[in-house]
Each structure stands twice: as structure tokens, then as C-alpha cells.
Amino acid sequence: MYDLFLGLTLFVMLFSGLFVFCSMRKHLLLTLLSLEFLVLVLYLLFFIFLCFYGLSYYFILVFLTFSVCEGVMGLSILVGLIRGHGSDSVNSLSILGW
């Protein structure tokens, strides 16, 4: 029963994060937050997988290192966009303006 609840919870978390990532194309900050949520769900999935099979946890450290680098790169793009265009709206990047 516990495994079914955990699997269903992770499934709902993963697809809600994907839905928010696909639907929030207006602001870069919301897109980055949904990406970080997806990274946390993947971290939880990797942790459960490694615990279930009794493998080494070094891969989790590598994954956390890359996810921190991804977050820092996203924040630097966000800061550059806000300084250059005045807002985090992705529509302001287009020449047409949509």
C-alpha cells in the first residue's frame, strides 16, 4: 500500500511539474521554478531507486552538483534578462512582441 501511494504521489508531482513548465511560457521566473521542482522530483526518484537496489549514493552528489549549476545558470540568465529588458517576460525578447 505504501509503495502504491509513493508511486502515485511521485507520478502526480512529475506530471504537475511538467504541466506547469509547459503552460507557463510568459515569465521566465515561473519557468525556472517549475524546472527546479522537476529537478527535486527527479532527485527523489533517484534516491528511492538507489535505496531500493542498495547502490552507492555518489551519483546523488553528482546529480545535486549539476542541478545547482543548472539553477545558477538559470538565475544568471534571469538577472541578465531583467537588467537588459526591465522584466522577466519572455515575450519582450521577441522582435514581433506577440
Automatic annotation (TrEMBL):
<keyword id="KW-1278">Translocase</keyword>
<keyword id="KW-0496">Mitochondrion</keyword>
<feature type="transmembrane region" description="Helical">
    <location>
        <begin position="56"/>
        <end position="82"/>
    </location>
</feature>
<protein>
    <recommendedName>
        <fullName>NADH-ubiquinone oxidoreductase chain 4L</fullName>
    </recommendedName>
</protein>
<dbReference type="InterPro" id="IPR039428">
    <property type="entry name" value="NUOK/Mnh_C1-like"/>
</dbReference>
<keyword id="KW-1133">Transmembrane helix</keyword>
<keyword id="KW-0472">Membrane</keyword>
<feature type="transmembrane region" description="Helical">
    <location>
        <begin position="6"/>
        <end position="22"/>
    </location>
</feature>
<dbReference type="Pfam" id="PF00420">
    <property type="entry name" value="Oxidored_q2"/>
</dbReference>
<dbReference type="GO" id="GO:0016020">
    <property type="term" value="C:membrane"/>
</dbReference>
<feature type="transmembrane region" description="Helical">
    <location>
        <begin position="29"/>
        <end position="50"/>
    </location>
</feature>
<dbReference type="GO" id="GO:0008137">
    <property type="term" value="F:NADH dehydrogenase (ubiquinone) activity"/>
</dbReference>
<keyword id="KW-0520">NAD</keyword>
<comment type="similarity">
    <text>Belongs to the complex I subunit 4L family.</text>
</comment>
<keyword id="KW-0812">Transmembrane</keyword>
